[in-house]
Structures are given as structure tokens and as C-alpha cells.
Amino acid sequence: MLFYKEKQMIVLHLSFFAGSCYLWGETPAERIPKRRGRPPKNPKPMLSPFNVSRVKLGDALAVAGIKVKRGQKAGPAMIAWMPSLKDQPVGSSLLVSEPPPAAQEPEIRPWEVTPITLLPDEVIALLTACAGHRNLVPGVVIGGDVSFWVMALRFAGSLAAAGRFLPGVKQKNGAFVAFWEPVFLGEDMENLVALADRMPAACYCLTPDAVPPDAHAPTVLRSFTAMLIDALVRQEAALQQGKPKKKRGKAAGNTSIHERWLAALRAPSGQLEGDTAELVKLTSQVKEWRRKVYTLSAAPYRFCFRLEEPGIEESGTESAVEKRAEQPGAGKGTEGPVIGKSGEKQLNAEKPVVEKSAAKKQKESPKKKKADRREETWMVRYFLQLRDDPSLLIPAADAWDGRVKLKFKGGKRGLLREFMLTALGQAACFSPQVEESIKSGVPAGFTLDSSGAFEFLHNQAPLLRQAGFGVMLPSWWTKKGSKARLSIRGKVSSPPFQSGGGLDMNQVVSFDWEVALGDEVLSPQELDALARLKSPLVKLRGQWVEVDAGEIKTALDFWMKKASQQMTARDIVKLSLGAVHQPENLTLESLDASGWMGDLLERLEGEKSCTDVPPPQGFQGELRPYQTRGYAWLNFLSEIGFGACLADDMGLGKTIQSLALLQHRYEQGERGPVLLICPTSVIANWEKEAARFTPELPVLIHHGPSRKKDKAFKKDAAEHAVVISSYALLGREGDLFQKVHWDGVILDEAQNIKNPQTQQARAARSLEADYRLALTGTPVENNVGDLWSLMEYLNPGFLGNQAEFKRFFLVPIQVHRNREAADALKHLTRPFILRRLKTDRSIIDDLPDKMEMKVFCPLTQEQASLYAAVIKEIEAALEESEGIERKGLILSALTKFKQVCNHPAQFLKDNSALAGRSGKLIRLTEMSEEILAAGERALIFTQFAEMGKLLQRYLMETFGYPVLYLHGGVSKKERDQMVDIFQGEGGPPFFILTIKAGGTGLNLTRANHVFHFDRWWNPAVENQATDRAFRIGQQKNVQVYKFLCRGTIEERIDEMIERKVQLAEDIVGSGESWLTELSTEEFKDLMALREEAIGEW
After folding, report:
1. Same structural domain for residues 51 and 197?
2. 928: closest CA among 778, 712, 1094, 714?
3. Quick one: 865 and 828 in the same domain?
4. How many independent structural domains does the chain possess?
5. Closest Cα partner for 1090 from 894, 904, 858?
6. Strand, helix or coil for residue 964
7. Strands 537-540 and 107-113
8. Which regions are flagged for Basic and acidic residues bias (predicted)?
9. Are residues 797 and 877 in the same domain?
10. Cα separation of 791 and 645, whole Å?
11. CB 791 within 8 A of CB 798
């Protein structure tokens, strides 16, 4: 068997058939039964060997907190049509069964499964629990079809939020049922089809009998979405209605049929009671009303509105078809309120141009006034627009005219009239002008003044487009970035930057403002003239622009009061990035800065690189070029007091860059303590790396039972350059850390504060520090929801409060896929997040082909207790043994210590739970998350076959991926198959190997991470194992991690080998037997348990 087949591993599936959802599952089979004798002509489907019983499905849901009403008693068995080979099904995942041979093509055959039938509310609960996860709970993996339905739920939710649904009533099994149903118009239909293209076959692979499914993915998705919409709308209606009130006066049975229909639309069952004849009549009425709506969506054309500027001549009805490739009306027409070169004298005159115009109009003849009104009139014309060719427009006048023959499908006059009347009736809900135009009998459009055109552009057009109508607007309005809006521009002047002078972000800087409309800077006189025009749309130098009288007055008042002002450099930075509300809520279009302020903003925006900072003199190491750039970037932001997140890919040296910064600031005279918070599992690594690269820095480890408290801690912290502690203690002892003013705070593995409500996240935000850093190897830009907590720690207030962040960024980006919101968020956060990947061209040449590092892991309390018990047992036996017996005792003790350091379950051999009991496993989990986030693969070596089995089980249950395991009991055939699977596209991310089985003869270059979970204490053997990944054909840099338990025999043996590195191969060439030559006292010292070995979680 290629994979560890644990019965608790379940792959969940959710299939849809005939309006119902069926939850079923697959689990590895102990053995697959074969049919005996000659197969019958029409064989009855057998129970799938991978079938998961309803009891186990129900248990899995219960653990996830999902209540199922029908549960284990739901319905008969169903038939799953699954790929099969030789009368055996092929599992949907490598977690279930081995892959079929490449030479054989599976056939689709029927297999019996026992699903649970889920109610719509239960489906929503399940999909909500599955969203964003690979596992529902440990050991229960979410199948690809379930993940697809999660996307369908989001789609249905967007329809419900936009109100794109209609009520209905239907007769079902002799009863009448009220229901809600989605309406797919415009882009919604396109999105439905695009989503359906991604639907896995498992979504519709179930049938009630041995008849193959005959389903069409868009149809299935449409029905599934309808089911969700009905449930979502009822849920919302129930929330809004609250607890139903008792009827007073008129009995419930005497309410009108329409009231009962509305009540049924809110009720969970939707059942509608009443007189049959009355219900039949209601059904007919609702059906007719709905038919009109669907007439619009089913026609080969759609109704279209085109807004035309003043000055465009009426086109009439000379031609039945207009071919318009470009947007109409752009730049045409010169009359109406105009601000331009020809009007500059009027604008700069003593009296506003509007007053002159008004005086002039008093003397004008009625005929002249009529011409002026025509020149200032906007026109909305009606068209039919073919869906297959949107550039083909049919004027409504031609469609009304029975004498014109329209040669296309659906072009009959009767159908067109019905369609247009229906469309106009629907559009009248959004536009009173449309409703008024219907009274003409054959409406072809309507006219508007400038205020009406503004209302149409701003409010009516978006509603009409959302409802599925075609809307054509002038190009100056629709083209991105061309809408000329009122904005302000800032100018900052500052002297050139003086090298070595430092930057004071509290320095006050002079700031000048300008007001612009579009690209044109306006004078106060022009602003005053615009304010007096009282028109929302004016022509500015030949271009129509939007003008808000209130905004104009606000801008004018602002300019008069604050044409020049003073601001701190820090506030100017925030303003330039959009991190604070703009002055008077006016849009800040640009900020032009010169001198050191301009230099600062250019560096923040990435237009200019940070000034190179030479490595500190006391730094005992060599920074690679990209690390030098990262260190300079960290130094730049810490100097100006802004928080920075170094999000480099795993293995690029975030630790060394941070230590270089600490050493540099220390040498510059910044001697205040820096608090470094990290997971318990890496405290020892930070301590070791600091001792190696920055030995001059005094380091305090605030961890363990002997750590200082209160005043003693404050005094101790002040005497050290770096204080290292854990997230666990940050959450528990936040008040203690708040008593110290830190020079800086560094959070390693900062994803630990992604949930802003946790104790540790709140404590991190409350710390006082001159600068803040965050280190993480995960791509933070991909997790919009996590950004607020990170940025609120780094630069408080930059993204607003949580509610503002949700309103302006989270919902627009994740729900509405708003590109502008995503760009704005990127603009705000980009200056403070630096992420480089190992594959970047600027990085890859700087990296060595192979990087090795030691990972020091603490023991859990349970491990420490077991370790102490082994010491006690061995010490007593050593005193009474000698010769071969003594050697055997020492080798046995080494094995026990290794087992304890690996995991208590390996030492106890009790098949107990694995999570949270081993420091090594906790660290492996943390690093594996980063590997998965980067889409990379890893080899994990152990010398113990039983530990490999435990690791395989744990990784499969935790991450939901298949995990290969090669040990001495694997045949050559299976071994070759494992290699092929791992090396292939889409192969598993983890491959566990025992040192003996996987140390030679394998080519596993798909992996670029190698873990030595326990040590062989033979460098030659370990290097040979590492070379399984580091071979010809490796396209990436290989990172090797050697796990050790701090303060235990593992660390001290490693130190002994390091001290005798030149003799290491001779010393350990025979394995671990050299340790048996140590004296009893030397061995006791070797195995002693030191205080720093024990971690706190």
C-alpha cells in the first residue's frame, strides 16, 4: 500500500440530484472484494468498498458542530457513478486509493453508497464551515466537489445581497408551496456559465437507480443556486421578522391569499394553505407576472438606453439598424454652461458669468429662448440591442413601426411590442421619465436638463444596468479615469536631505494646496463662478465634467482658509498614502514634494531604492546582496518610526536581516531593549542565531519557570539589548510587557496575530515602541482579512478601524471583487510589506544551491517528564553494569531519548493523539504550513519506521493531503511507483522516508525542502539522504533542516561533533557506538536535562 490507510480518514462529497443534496464519503478500504464467477449481463451495483457509513458521516458533522435533522436515518442508498478498473472503483483522491496505471483508462460504473440527505439550511452550514479550509475536522478532508459548492454559495450570496431573486408559488405533490428563485440577468448569467465550467463530475454523479446521470452542469448549478437562494432569503426574512406575533381580531384563516403567500415565503416549509381554486388563481397570476420578467432575460435582444449630449441632432428613423462601434456623444456639443478658454474673461470678470447670462436672457425673444433650451437638452433614446452582437442597435421607433421588417429571430412585430412594453414597465421602476414616456403610446426616448442627466448618470443608469438593461453612456463618463472630478493637490517644499542628519518625522513642514477640476487647476474666481452655475454638469474646455455645488463651496472655503498650512512629516506621509481622511473629504489627487520630503515619499512608494547601509561592524557574518537590501529597507522604516513587515519566502534569512538591524541600531547608540516575540518552538533558534551573528548583543530569554516578574523584569530588560519571549507569554503576561518602553518590537511568524480578537494580538498592539517589525514567510497579500490585524500592529490607524476596513476593503474585495478597492489597499500597504521569493530573478543568483540549518525545538512538559524518567532508570542501571551489557544499555538509552524527543506516542507505543505533545512536531507543523502556502514539496527523514507512520498519519489528518511513506517493508515496485507519483505534476507535498530505505538510489528533485526529524549522528549518512533532493535536475535551491531538542542529549551530541568537525567522520563512522566509550560521568552529563529544554505553550 502506498499510503497509510487509516479508517478515520474520510473524503467528503456533496452531490445534487432532483433538488436534493446528498452528503457521502470515501475512506480507504482494507481490502476490495472481487466478484466471483461469471459477471451477470446487468449486474446489480455493489456497495462501494470506499463507502462511509451514515453513522461515521454523522459523527464527522457532529465534531464540526453541524446539526443534521435527518441524520443517519436519511433515505435509501444511492448509486454513485465512479471511475472504475476491473470491477473496482478508483478513489477520488490518493488518500482513498492508489492511482490507476497510466496505460489503463478507467470506465464510469455504478457503485452503491449510503449518503445523508441534507436540508438546504444544513447545506449552507456545511459549506460555511468548509469555506477556506482543506479539512472539515482533522481526518475529514473536503473533496473538490464540496469546495466547488462553496464557490456556488458565494455566488448565491452575491445574488441574494443584490436582490436578484423573485417570489413564486407552485404546486408540488398535491400541495402549494411558496418559494424564492434567482433571476439571472446580464453578467449574472455569464458568471453562472463560467462557474459551471469548473464543476467537478462528482457534483452530479449520484442517481437513485442504475441509470447513468444525464445532467448538464449549468442546469445543475442553476437548480442548486435556486435552492440556496430560497434558503438564504427565508433565513434573512426570519431574522428581520423576529418572533412571530399572535394574531388579534381577524383570524389567521381570514387573511387574504396574498398575505398568506407572503407569510409562506418567510416560513421554513413554504407550505401555502387555503382554498384550492383560490390558490390555483394565485399560481396563475404569479406565473404571468414572472413570465414578463423572464421575457426580458430569454429574448435574443435586450432593451437599451443611450444618453446623448446636447447638440447631437435627432437621428430619426431613417434606418432600422444603427452600427455603432464607439460610444456616442463624446466631445460633441459646445453650448450649455461652459468653462473654457472662450469663457476665461467672463469668469475673471467682476460679476459671475451666470449673472450676465441671466440679465441677457431677460431681453431675449421667446424664439431665441426656445433654441437655447434645445441646445441645453440631453436626450435618452431607446434601442433594442442584440445579445450576440451588442454593437447592432435597433431604434425603438423602428420596432414600434409595423411597416419595418426586422429579419432576425424574435423580430416579429407582436413579439417586439410585447417585449418592449414589458421592458419599459420594468424600467419604469427605476426611472420616472421612462414611466412618463410610456404615455406617448410609442415611446422612443425622453429629454432631460443637466440636472436630470446628472441624476440619470449617477443613479438611474447603474440600476438599469444592474437589472439587465443595456446602458450606453458618453465615453467621458464611462472611460476609467476620465471622469473629471473636483480634487485637491498638495505641494511640499523642504531642503535637500543631509547625509547623517537623520529624519525627524515630527518635523513641521510647509504645505500648499491647489484645487483642480479634472486636469485643470482652478483659481478662487473660477471656483466661485462654478458655485454660482447651479448645474451638476458643465463643460470645461470642451469636456463635460461633474460638478457638485456643495463640493465647490467646500473647496472654495477650504482654499480660502488653508491655501497654506503646516503639517508634520508623519501626517504628510499618511496623507500621501491615503491612510487618513482627506481634508474636508475632498479627493487628494496628487502630492508634489521636493527636498528630503520628496526623497522620503519616493522611497516609500518604491520609486527610489533605500540608501545602502553598510553591515554593522559587530555583525559576525556576511549578508547576501538581497539581504543587504532588506536590512537597509528595515533600517529606513525603523528610522522614520513606521512599522515594517518582512515577508520573505521561507529560507531567505529573515532572522539574519533582523539581527543585522538590531546590531546596527545598537552601534548607533540606540541601546533601549528590543522585545522579540516568537513561537515557543523557535526561541532556541533565535538565541543560537543571535549568539552566532551578533555576540555583542546582550540577550535575555524571558521564558521558563525561573523568568523574572514585575520590577525585576523591568530592570533586567533594561540591561539587555534583546528580550526574547513567546506568544503564549505575550498573551498571559501582556501587562508585564506594557511596563517597558521598548526601542522596538519584533513579531516573528506574525501570522500568529492574524485574528485581531486574540489575547496575543491585542497585547501586541498595546506595546509601546519606537518602531515595530513583523516577520512572516506566508504571502500576507493573499489574505485580505488578515491584513487589518497585521497593519494595526505595525502602523495603528492606517487602515481605519475594523468596521471601516470591512466596509471599504474586505467586503468590496472578497465579495464584490472590486479592483479599485484592491488597488487602494495595495497602495496603502505596499510601502510597509517587503516580500521576495526564492524564484525572483534578483534573488536566485544570490542563493547557494544548498542551505543547511539547525532547528532547535523545546520539549513539552510531557516530554520533559518522560525524559526525566528515562534518566532516572538509566542512572541506576549504569552503576551496576559493565562491558557489553553497559554498551547495550547506553545504546538502548540513546534510542529511548530519541523516541521521547520525537514524540511521547512513539516512546509509549500507545497509538494516542499526536497534536500539541511534541516540540518537534509543533515546529514541523508551522514550517509545513509555509511550504504548503508556497506550493512547494518536502522530504522528511526519520530513522524510526514507527515514527514515520505517526508522521504520515498526522500530516494527512492535519493538512488533508496524501503523504507518501517509504520504509524497509516497501517493495521495489511500490517504491518506484512512489517516486513517479511524487515527481509527477500534482504530486503529494510530503514524502516521508526512513534513512535506511530512502538514503540511496532515489531521485526526488521535486522537493526543495529536506527535514531530518531525528538525527543519525553520522554526517555521511545524513548528507547521502539530503542528496535525494539535491541532485542533477533540481531546479530550485534546497533547504535542509536538522531538528534537535534544546537542552537534551541531542543538542550536546551535536556540539561534540561540531567541536571535532575535522574528525567527525572518523568518530561517528560506525554509527553511535562511539558514545558507548564515554565514562559514566561523561554520559550522565551528556543526557542531563537542562532548564532551557522545556517550552511553554
Report:
1. yes
2. 778
3. no
4. 4
5. 858
6. strand
7. unpaired
8. 342-365
9. no
10. 9
11. yes
